[in-house]
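Posting this for the archive.
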Amino acid sequence: MSRTPLYRCAIVLVGLLLTGNLRAADVDYGQQLPQSTEAVGLWWASSGWKVSQAQAVPANRGEAASMSLARNETEALQLVLRPSSGLTGLSAQAQPLKGPLGASIPAANIDILRVRYVNITQATDKAGAVGLWPDPLPPLREAVHVPAGTNQPLWIRVHVPAGVPAGTYEGNVHLAADGYQAEVPLRVEVFDFQLPDRMSCVSAFGFTPETVFQYQKVTDPAQQREVLAKYWANFAAHHITPYNPAPLDPVKVTWPETKDPAALIPQFDWTAWDAAMSKAFDEYHFTSFQLLAPGLGGGTFHSRVEPDMLGFKEGTPEYQAAFTNYYKAVQEHLRERGWLDKAYVYWFDEPDPKDYDFVMNGFRKLKEAAPGVTRMLTEQVEPGLVGGPNLWCPISDAYKHPDAEARRAQGEKFWWYICTGPKAPYAGEFVDHPGTELRVWLWQTWQRNIDGILVWATNYWTSPEAYPKGLQNPYEDPMSWQTSYGIAPGTMKPWGNGDGRFIYPPEAAASGQQEGPVLEGPVDSIRWEMLRDGVEDYEYMTILRRLLAEQPAEQKQFGALLETPAAITSDMTTFTNDPAPIEQHRRAVAKAIEMLGKK
């Protein structure tokens, strides 16, 4: 997806606060655990905080590291070690969690990841700051060293199985290092309801498998499928859908060699594509897919491609016949498979007013040939585009609610997106911004009755312009550098730290310089985890809304919970940097769901 330049800026306070450049007393959060000693400070904090290496052990005390979540939900917290002397050979192992009626959450459902820091040398904007920022979450597979006087957070992630009894589950995380051991209590409250496998909030995120194969040096087709399956499982675990869930299994189309327009009828081989898409929906529970749009041309605000079909130009009988026959056949196949409502055509990106007539002409042709196919456009509502798209997807700071409501009244839907912008003071996707921002973005999504979210890329790890002689190591250089737009090789123009990069390559393939293939899945990021939590928050609200629709008499008692509290976000530029208001309202919604579910 292309980029939109020039966005607003804000104060440096948040960045300074999160990188530990203010006094610890000013940013006290988390709880010190009973196992904390002068030799090794031990504390825990919500996953919504970005814990700096300089953050002091909090004064507040707690009995156990704790979290609350529903069945079939995933949640995380941070267990932080701060040794006074260097700690060598640190390892961690989770024990099963024992709950009511002899039930348990297996240790296999508990992941322990290492919070890794990236060095920000150029702030994204005035809300960012240079310094070490936490973001990558590689698995803790090998013992690590923790320097004296610095924090090492461990990301403790729990997935509650479907069907387990509600209640409190308890166990320990065993920590060990040279001359050090501790049993850290972990307490998990399971709410008495279950999240569905497929989320209500639709997502559409860009993903480039070729980049993965390049970094991980995977050339064998069977191994490419093995690796891609691990990436898809990771996407599914975070409730994020890629634009194209079947990149290795395209639809095969053949056309007859004829000069007769009436005979230009395509023949489709759907076999491999159908199998891949069935897995995408039935196993990974993806929510959407981008439908390729031959014959429409395409482009962005800076360039465009004129339409043709099989080499025939628009306006010829051959073009018209081939275009119509192709899209009618595709529409009917999707209808037969039950996937028509998940498909969208995304063929032009961020048009300028000079492109509006071109875009409207393309949508007119598509609507005539296949009226059931969703016509998506990454643009805000503009008079010159009304009647073209029936799925609008503006950048978040260009969304205007009154305009959207008018189009919704006509049966149209809305997604929205973020990319290199908007920058501060808006909620964005950047490493050097508060951890709450992407989760807040989903609350803003719910607040405006928006159905889905879109981001241009998830694995934008390198720029061929910024790194013309090799690959960027995103662990060492966290900036996303501009590409295309006629930029000369060697030019380094920043888009923002972490823009289009929510996952990292495996550490063994960080630079793409290893000798052989790396057959692993991606490394998560804190921002990727916050997206998952936000999508699950959205689902809590969806469940509550459904229950209240079924029990309208309870609207008076619980209806106010469907409103996003001002403490979370009151407008697009006013929102919490503290995860506590989010967690408090989420808990209130969960308790309401439990009560309504028993009636």
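The chain has eleven helices and 34 strands. Residues 24 and 220 are 51 Å apart (CA to CA).
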